[in-house]
## 1
Amino acid sequence: MLDRWHGIAAWFDSRLVEQLDTLGPGCPTRLREAIGYSLLAPGKRFRPVLCLMACEAVGGSLDDSLPGAMALEMMHGYSLIHDDLPAMDDDDLRRGRPTCHVRFDEATAILAGDALQPLAFQTLLDSNLSPEVIRESARILARAVGAEGMVGGQMDDLLAEKRDTSVLSVEERTEWLRSIHRRKTGALIQASVELGGVAGGASPQVRQALSEYGRAIGISFQIADDLLDAEGTSEKTGKKTGKDSARGKLTYPAVFGIESSREQARSWINDAIASIQCLGNRNEPLVWLANYILERTH
Amino acid sequence: MLDRWHGIAAWFDSRLVEQLDTLGPGCPTRLREAIGYSLLAPGKRFRPVLCLMACEAVGGSLDDSLPGAMALEMMHGYSLIHDDLPAMDDDDLRRGRPTCHVRFDEATAILAGDALQPLAFQTLLDSNLSPEVIRESARILARAVGAEGMVGGQMDDLLAEKRDTSVLSVEERTEWLRSIHRRKTGALIQASVELGGVAGGASPQVRQALSEYGRAIGISFQIADDLLDAEGTSEKTGKKTGKDSARGKLTYPAVFGIESSREQARSWINDAIASIQCLGNRNEPLVWLANYILERTH
């Protein structure tokens, strides 16, 4: 199944290169380079593969969900570029390479992120999907990355660093942590599954099941990320590790400890898998994907 | 007619406040404040009023073009916040008030801009316009603000500051200047007129006429802006003036001189007015608006 993932990711990458090539001469060379540098950097392509596999799981084709998958990766790419900025998380290493503002400069990095957002919408809007699928997909995407989703989560994550969370009760810290992660990372992962479902023509019931699956794997994905940061090495993750605790960030290992965090990740993965029983045998790639997230925590 | 403009702008502002109020509890208070601070700052609301008046000029209602008008102002607001950042134009005064990153901080300003982009699309996508009008409007908007439009123009504008333009011929400098302005300011102004036409159900011929009108007033708007910066005071413009020449920016007055710049602005306005003769009497507000731009240059 890992081979299948890699195969889909490689196919997706070549389609993504073609999509970037459609940018006309009005796009400055430097901007095009910065967008390509960040977007095409080596990566797992977790969100687009999730979208493509979810679409297949409900009977759609990879081509049906390609516009949504590209839009998701563009949104993810923009968020990484902006999150790494000096005024934000101030990271200089990403996917094993200098971050966009280090390789280019801050202004170029801000603009590359700013350009990726409308490019994501454009990719969906220009596609040959039906107007209803386009509208529904774009709505899901806009909400997931907006002030109540990804950007809101990033804002609260930055505020949490400045807040003395030690005065909060365990319940309050847990609620705060979950609320941040649900928006900062979870919303786009959940949207990835939902976009696959919409593109594949899923029924309302199946869409609901996919939505619950997406929510649950989104949370466990973030727990796994926190665990990797606490335990991993930069060789393994391609970015600096141990930074979260150095900055006093609110993370699962910090609030619950390593073992309890692992248990929670497992519990969410079990919930995710239970949610998609209604898909029958077709759910296998999504079950495998959920378990793969869990493996990262060990 | 100025009263009519102010009346529409006041109505628009109250609708915009209502739209921001739809942001749910997932949006952090600080982010909501920064968005409101920038978006609702006193301003002429040139782009939304242009969109609303264009819609009326083709027989549509203000309500038809309200979602597009709000989306345009949100995109304009995001672009101002990001353009003012220290890594970009580094401005601390905007619309007579401290800029967003001065009043809040850089991270909040970046995120407020990042949140306004999907909010603009969401405003269009959630509206009760027909799926075809929504799709077409969102496509026009995405293209206008993207890598080949507004963001591309801003990138080249920043690069122009670092480039020794004195080695270029007059023709090369003129071409470079026009290309930057067409994208940086012109694209969104042109899109404002086009969105009004689409929302009002204009025929392809009328849409083409509006598009030419929008292109021409976009160029003269930028010339007027350059002239204001060269001649105006910050009391009049609400922002620092004389900055362009201090930074060696490529501007119309710098390339052509004050008088020739004024003549070019007039010539574009004449072209704009000629483009919309096909609208008959209904074109009056748009004719007035075009002439109003020209008055700013004196």
## 2
Amino acid sequence: MRLRPSWVSGLNSEFFVETKKRVEVIDITAEVEKRAGSGNACLVFVPHATAALILNEFEPNIQEDYGEFFSRIAKGEWKHDRIDNNAEAHLLSALISPSVLVPVENKRLQLGTWQRIMLVELDGPRKRKVLVRMI
Amino acid sequence: MRLRPSWVSGLNSEFFVETKKRVEVIDITAEVEKRAGSGNACLVFVPHATAALILNEFEPNIQEDYGEFFSRIAKGEWKHDRIDNNAEAHLLSALISPSVLVPVENKRLQLGTWQRIMLVELDGPRKRKVLVRMI
Amino acid sequence: MRLRPSWVSGLNSEFFVETKKRVEVIDITAEVEKRAGSGNACLVFVPHATAALILNEFEPNIQEDYGEFFSRIAKGEWKHDRIDNNAEAHLLSALISPSVLVPVENKRLQLGTWQRIMLVELDGPRKRKVLVRMI
């Protein structure tokens, strides 16, 4: 997994994440934090339909658990697989959500001790865009 | 399914969606887009406890898959059914969420190529209100 | 369950909720409403990785149903339990989300008739912090 900053323009910013596996959970907190500016909250958003964002603990054990947990929820035979073999990825990302919204104070994310912002890749490997928007 | 614009007042706006089935997924992207104004993000919100909003791909196959996927997650015998026979709809809408938040630039929603905003009816047919709020 | 107001500073505010059970759903709507101020939306956020927030109906039957429903989704053998016996709580709170975002008009939350804001304790009993932020 590599992170490449793209552009920063005033309050708006985006960066890219290259994933390596079909299902993968990647900690992107540091990339979001450096883009946090003035405002009351920071919106992090993936403009994708087979990836999602979550906010929770990140360590190697639970990192693997997330993948198994999410995969289990949507396992099945789906009609969408007739046209594109990634129905599970769509159903899961629809359920999980493509955004997280974090309170901000003095340009700093008000995250709890164990909260990390993570990108959930559900149909990788792919290059994913992450938008960071102060509001 | 019919969409009827209601009122537009400055940054605030709402419209109604009439659903036809018990469980149904309806693409409301066009109705939201025409209400997007100045601001950094667009909040779409349903003031209901048995409907929800998702952001993902919309095509006839996956439209049916959503319904089956969501119904499967909450299938069961629930205490709330003693007083109102719609516990599954409440549990699902609580899990899915009544809102989506989309980044906006130059009054345009920054949606990905495959992202559509959808209302998820879980206890229809009903007339549902959708609030659109720029923030 | 007791609620203790903490501090209110301009648009920013927080309060604490003391939970009594391992899994528990608590209506915090009144505490959020009194902190709603000027703005277009109200962000409610828990800075925790084993608690979450939902927006839905609250009554004694469904209150119990939520607990059973959420517990059922994440039941399993997880790697994270080797280091901390609360993997289910992490997986569920990651899926449910630590925030709700409610439209506001004239300093009043635009909640639907049956919508209540609830804290979902998944690894209690604990003292939980809730942030309320106008945006």
## 3
Amino acid sequence: MNDRLIRALKGQPVDRPPVWFMRQAGRYLPEYREVRSRVSFLELCRSPELALEVTLQPLDRFRLDAAIVFSDILPVLEAIGREISFEPGMGPRIHEPLRDRAGLATLVRPDVAVALPHVPATLKMFREARPDTPILGFAGSPFTLLCYLVEGQGSKDFKLTKRLLWEDPEAADQVLGLLADVVGDYLQSQIDAGAAAVQMFDTWAGVLSPPDWERWAGRYAARALARVKGAPRLYFTRDSSPFLSRLHQTGADAFGLDWRVDLAPAREILGQDTPIQGNLDPIALFAPPEEIKRRVHAICDAAGPTGHVFNLGHGVIPSTPIAGVEAMIEAVHERV
Amino acid sequence: MNDRLIRALKGQPVDRPPVWFMRQAGRYLPEYREVRSRVSFLELCRSPELALEVTLQPLDRFRLDAAIVFSDILPVLEAIGREISFEPGMGPRIHEPLRDRAGLATLVRPDVAVALPHVPATLKMFREARPDTPILGFAGSPFTLLCYLVEGQGSKDFKLTKRLLWEDPEAADQVLGLLADVVGDYLQSQIDAGAAAVQMFDTWAGVLSPPDWERWAGRYAARALARVKGAPRLYFTRDSSPFLSRLHQTGADAFGLDWRVDLAPAREILGQDTPIQGNLDPIALFAPPEEIKRRVHAICDAAGPTGHVFNLGHGVIPSTPIAGVEAMIEAVHERV
């Protein structure tokens, strides 16, 4: 198997940094849009065959060192008793948002193997289909899932979530504890099904002040990750800079850093032995190819030759030109 | 005159930190909404009498140490030749967005005294009305104004702005140079009209990687601020953490920091003699009063007794409860 990803995530020497990127199986690919013209997003998430098909698409097109299983972060909320829907043009909507202590009684503690079967099934099929390529599993963080559960959708200010934290910390702790246990078991089930590494996405952690991040995001990320063994565990938040000196509180093995982070000083703060992942601005893929290559090389130079997984600093956006993606990947291949 | 603000912005001893807050004249106040039920936002910005009325409203209600003149950051775009409109429920819209080099010919270099008369007029009236209270002037930063000019409105990813920077840096430099000169002269005109300090709002700088911030945000903030003399000049961006070690490149005298910044380490990075402003999470004003007070005291403790202006870490949001604002201000007054 291509072992660049795992070697980099363990801080072992590699011939060049491994490269994969967030949302590499997604709407910027015409072949993905073709599948989506036939099935809804939720149907795609619930069909291991179709999820496998779109997981493989970027591997067939680009020289990538890893796949990431196609899924979404919200199935965990379904597993604890919420219905989710996606309306076209809108983000997800969580029916019956949880706003207070009364909502606690409506949550269920699921058997993860029963409630979240699709992603492990996709992973097993991937291992058969591509024995030579490692694949990442993933889940949303407990805090980010709490945000969706409380707001019922995305938010500009996450006012309702923060009010719950501050007005009824005990209730918030109960929900976050449940979410952490389910997220942890879900990530473990993905490793057991063949994931070579797992990534926790803490998309919304950046709305918190550093002490709030410690209390509500870091603490429950750590509780979830403590349940996960047998493969490297990555933690990603799209606002890394405010929390750099605290990231080790999650207990993660490696950290995905957003594009506003200077990698050289970040490595000093995290410790030179801590593997990192990132961090090209996803919008840089719209720049001319020479500019993309210059930026990729600058990032690799700043990160140094070991303990670095090349990635974007956030997910690729739907209108991204394929040529930009190709220039990025080519530049990483030039690092041998 | 109440000199706490100016003393704090000069690093001189004060009996307690001065307090004002971003958007203190705004929609969270019923008396502001009453005025807005009669006139549009643009009418309000263009009438020095009405702008004075709403500028005074928070001073009449709370024990604040400074006013900030009521206005918006977009008049500068009108001055260089763009029409702006506000549709209810939407943000601002800039007619004829500038997308490429061809747009350069449509921009004009204004006489600031002629093109931007309303804010200086309001400031002069304020100085008459409240000789004992200092007032801040403000402007958007060149980069943030460029974002609005290019996108034509707010944006999730500022893709069009970044494409202009990377595909035609010369054209971007020309627009930013013009904006910097106009912003600088506009801030100077506000000091000449009686502003005790001025603040540059670089709202969108946080979409840039640190090297891009240097090249496109910091450089032109510095060019604008170099034209401004005679009063302390503050620089604020709503994402401060990624740029802390570079903020002095703006040449500003003091820095407004968002709520994701730990003040004690930030002061080490900026230098203990650099005055700072901030940084309570605006959503914390929804918390119970004791929790608000605890957070205000923690911020003041971390900032230390000199060179700190108490403020929110971003503007107050419209649905904020007045009681939360009162608890915050009371806590600052407890610092004597």
